[in-house]
């Protein structure tokens, strides 16, 4: 559990590191609010803040491409889809006291376990790795593309096949059966 | 210090363009629509052909009482116009108007992704407005906005991806550096798909189902008055400017012109943008509104296949010329 001696210290943070921490706090706050608020649509809007905060964190780590994709996919599509679903079904203005579930403790346990596992794995894997924020961007589109399509082609393709399967599955599930036919 | 001044000056110029260009488009719309419909349009405000009509409109909007409906969700209702308008300002920062790194608000490495991602955020404003107004017409308008966005975002992205493939970069300045005249016929299908999908995203006629005044009053903006309503209108015109500028940068060569690229680049960009903005207004006067099912059908059965075909064509040509 010893950090590499050559690693930068924690006691004299640079401006970027301070900004990173502050944005992280905002993101965490928005995330907590989005699961504790009693107003359904507000939860979705707080999720926008949390996901946008994550995009800013990527930007601060010089991963520009990932940051914009994060905004495009999560803020621009996933949250819009969420809001669409909420508005189509039930989106009351004001508090919804019935929007609670008896599974709360179980959900909390699962969330804490997942978070702990992720934090443990990530810190263990990258403990002595430091990004040089001053030098040329390490996460530019060109670098990301080269790494993705040279070193990680197989996982990338496997993921796209998985997504395709999910897409086909969704279409099959949502197709109406002819009248009178039962499954 | 010089760097800070440089950045401040650029951002100031972008901000000025953001304030002026949408108003110019708005005034042009007044006059072009009027002449296409055999009338004069505004003629009195300001003296010469009513040039100050929009300024007068602005003063009128500022004087109106700002009303929030009693049952509305106050904070979301008041925040919505800003969420709708600000993304267009951010997009404008990344649009290059001339050759080199000097003629753009800020050089963004993943420019295409940046502009499309930020433009997609703007629709959240309409959604928030539609939900927070506590009005059934507003909610219907918000729903229609979302359905439209979900359908048209995909072809727009695919068309932009085709240009990125052709140029081998996702930076807007990089795309313009690689541009050659034969890209226009090569990418023409993608250009049409991009422009049509952009029109739908802006909810401009013939894709104005979300604000169809004869059915749902004014969609998500029904409950808005005064300055907040004016901000939504401004967002629409800023959206026209952004869409036309992006189409000209991505597909029509931006600052490339028949002559004088180095000095006149900004002029060619503005000219192309202005011609496209005229087409946007022209379409409003000449086409009837599409029905909701026709909207969806156009996106999924025409635009998406066309965009995919364009990508295939781009790939084939790209491999062939390498």
TrEMBL record, chain A:
It is a multi-pass membrane protein. Keywords: Cell membrane, Membrane, NAD, Quinone, Transmembrane, Transmembrane helix. This is NADH-quinone oxidoreductase subunit J. Its EC number is 7.1.1.-. The chain crosses the membrane at residues 18-36, 43-61, 67-86, 106-123, 152-173. It is an enzyme of class 7 (translocase). One of its GO terms (molecular function) is NADH dehydrogenase (ubiquinone) activity. Pfam families: Oxidored_q3. It catalyses: a quinone + NADH + 5 H(+)(in) = a quinol + NAD(+) + 4 H(+)(out). It is found in: Cell membrane. GO terms for cellular component: plasma membrane. NDH-1 shuttles electrons from NADH, via FMN and iron-sulfur (Fe-S) centers, to quinones in the respiratory chain. Couples the redox reaction to proton translocation (for every two electrons transferred, four hydrogen ions are translocated across the cytoplasmic membrane), and thus conserves the redox energy in a proton gradient. Belongs to the complex I subunit 6 family.
From TrEMBL, chain B:
The chain crosses the membrane at residues 42-59, 79-98, 110-133, 154-176, 182-200, 229-253, 265-286, 298-321. It is a multi-pass membrane protein. It catalyses: a quinone + NADH + 5 H(+)(in) = a quinol + NAD(+) + 4 H(+)(out). GO terms for biological process: aerobic respiration. Its main location: membrane. NDH-1 is composed of 14 different subunits. Subunits NuoA, H, J, K, L, M, N constitute the membrane sector of the complex. NDH-1 shuttles electrons from NADH, via FMN and iron-sulfur (Fe-S) centers, to quinones in the respiratory chain. The immediate electron acceptor for the enzyme in this species is believed to be ubiquinone. Couples the redox reaction to proton translocation (for every two electrons transferred, four hydrogen ions are translocated across the cytoplasmic membrane), and thus conserves the redox energy in a proton gradient. This subunit may bind ubiquinone. This is NADH-quinone oxidoreductase subunit H. The lineage of its organism: Bacteria, Bacillati, Actinomycetota, Actinomycetes, Kitasatosporales.
